[in-house]
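Data availability (excerpt). The following record was deposited with the supplementary files.
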Amino acid sequence: MIDFYPLARPLLFAADPEVAHAATLRALDAAARMGLVGAMQPAAVPVQVMGLTFPNRVGLAAGLDKNAAHLPGLAALGFGFIEAGTVTPRPQPGNPRPRLFRLPREHALINRLGFNNDGVARFVANVGGSGYQGILGINLGRNFDTPNERAADDYVAGLRAVHTHASYVTINVSSPNTKGLRDLQSEQALGALLARIVQERDALAQQHGRRVPLAVKLAPDLPDDALRGVAGTLVAAKVDAVIATNTTLARTGVQHEAHAAEAGGLSGEPLREQATRVVRVLAQALGGALPIIGVGGILRGADAREKLDAGATLVQLYTGLIYRGPALVTECIEATSILPSASATVTPS
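Predicted structure:
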């Protein structure tokens, strides 16, 4: 398949970031329907993680397809799995625009979208009508006006709604763009929250005869000691994986950029080292007790491999896809297919 993205990118980057995002997804959907995407991917060794068999180690991170409205088009890019969302129980518009900013020289984005989504009912309808058959992670959040003391109600409601559609579910307690959400990462708050969610997961498994794995997505801004404490909390709660990391509030290395002072989470190349540090600390603390999905600053195949070297089993892309296009997916599949991970069981192809 000819990679037209380098030709299209200047036009997309001349438009408002959210407008360009929507236009790209519509174009991708159309191209997938016409069979214009879906090139042969490099050979990959399937890997078993969370009791699921992933065809390759490279996934799409949550945030790009918040409403699960573009699954077939995204699947055509060759991802081993797709994580859609973040979705909340009730629809919400998110924060006022402008709320998404490019830092092109740094291959970075700053966003303060604020879980803008159409609500879980629409999300589930979109999944059901998509025809997508691959591994689907569904990323759950709380509504902006739900206080943290009732956050478990929102996550449980979301889990109930998506249970029959999800390959796995991610509990997002790390977005910097919902006020107070990151407070749920403290050991005490997280332990209480996960106890309620895991109890519901197990009840749903009993009811439906199908256990859906749970992952928890963490922020990159937690200090090492806090990460070690959270690692123990995750193991004690009997969740199935941890995703490291979400976006950062730090502006290290981008202070000179025009949009650096904008509120929101920074993603892309400036996050790479920080996210990899979190993967490494968690891997050491977990000792193989839970698999780690590494995300943050992956702009080339070597960056994906770096995450595996640090202790991740799977990786996810988002901002790198904005800057590199579909070629990044293939490059990362190639780079991660030759590295078996100690935290995963590799299945011969």
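Summary of structural features: The radius of gyration is 19 Å.
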